[in-house]
Amino acid sequence: MNWKSLVAAGLAATLLSSVATPAFAQVSERTIRIANGIAEDHPVGDGVEAMKACIAERTDGAWTVNAFWSSALGDDLQSAQALRSGTLEMVISSTSPLVAIEPALGVFDLPFLLNNEEEADALLDGEFGKYMADLLPKHNLVNLSYWENGFRNLSNSLRPVESLEDFEGMRVRVMQNNIFLDTFQTLGTNAQPMAFGEVFTALETGAIDAQENPYVTIDTSRFFEVQDYVSNTRHAYTPFVVLFSKPIFDTYSAEEQQILVDCSIVGRDVQRTASRALSSESLQRIKDAGLEVNDISEENMAEIRAAVAGVYERSAASIGAEVIERVNAELATIRGE
Fold first, then answer.
1. What's the domain count of the chain?
2. Does an H or E element contain 300, and which?
3. Which of 35, 56, 303, 333 has a CA-to-CA distance to 74 between 20 and 30 Å?
């Protein structure tokens, strides 16, 4: 069964559960615009379609939902600011750009915080995820649910990265984010913050050697055309947040607010399934394109993790020491430690 079939099956199951709940009485006609920084063929597109179908069912067609892709309404941070002012309804954004609004979201950028997708789901859908979501209403934002961007891996044009020494001197594009910058500088690279739209050309011209992103992004952005190696570093897991404008949310009835939350969760489950299935397909396409893909031994990975441990301490002032303590405590519980 391919990932499209998996998504269709998931959508059917989630919609069956939503159909079992009758449409609420206090539903007005509304139009909701959803801003996205990614392309429609990304797994977020599958989540949005599932969410739209759920909303149509729950509102009996009273709501019109329009999605805008590839930063058509501005980048993630600009769209989030529009939510805060009440001039846009919804944005699905990676947490990383939103650190400018709520610095505690930087906790998700800490290196090697999560080991696998199961830990990510348990953390985000549990008490810690709620704790983080509760920080956003003061910024006029409501987080409806967490979706998935995924684990980030390193691609480059120089050599396989198999040990800490292999990072040395590599010119790596990182997000315009202080934690990623600190992480890769600590690893010994020449880390260069750069807007995502500039990355392909910079790799193509040799202005930089490397970049780091989930497999799906490496594949759909065709970075395999200008890179030779991919190393399974899995150095960070980035979630998406499905944000709604609090000024607008507060005008909705309690029933309408619940529809938004419930249907975003329907979309979440479909989107995560699509993301994980497509990630495997993307990795295979990267290999088929001729790139050399390597794992890193447990011994060498332990050395890499130890090298960046200081990033946690240095980031405590911006993220908040309590936030880091909370996430570590929650993960210890999830891991049975």
1. 2
2. helix 298-307
3. 56
Q: Which helix (H) or strand (E) holds 173?
A: strand 171-174
Residue 180 has a CB neighbour count (10 Å cut-off) of 25
User: 8 or 112: which carries more pLDDT confidence?
Assistant: 112
**Does pLDDT of 261 surpass 70?**
yes
Q: Are residues 62 and 29 in the same domain?
A: yes
CA distance 327 to 287: 35
CATH for 178? 3.40.190.170
State the residue range of the domain holding 322: 153-236+282-334
Summary count for the chain: helices (H), strands (E): 13, 9
For residues 242 and 264, give the distance between their C-alpha atoms in angstroms, rounded to a whole number. 7
Q: 64-78 burial, b if ≥16 CB within 10 A, otherwise e?
A: ebebbbebebbbbbe
Residues 269-312 pLDDT 10s: 999 999 999 999 999 999 999 999 999 999 999 999 999 999 99
Q: What are the angstrom distances between the C-alpha of 275 and each of 151, 224, 282? A: 11, 19, 10
Enumerate the β-bridge partners of residue 241: 93, 146
Side-chain-facing half-sphere of 207: CA atoms under 13 Å? 12
- Token reading at 146: 């967490």
Q: Write the CA distances from 323 to 42, 169, 175, 319, 331, integer angstroms.
A: 31, 32, 22, 7, 12
Q: Are 46 and 10 in contact (CB under 8 A)?
A: no
7 touches 270 (CB < 8 A): yes
Residue 332 identity (one-letter amino acid): A
Residue recorded with tokens 């944005």 = 91
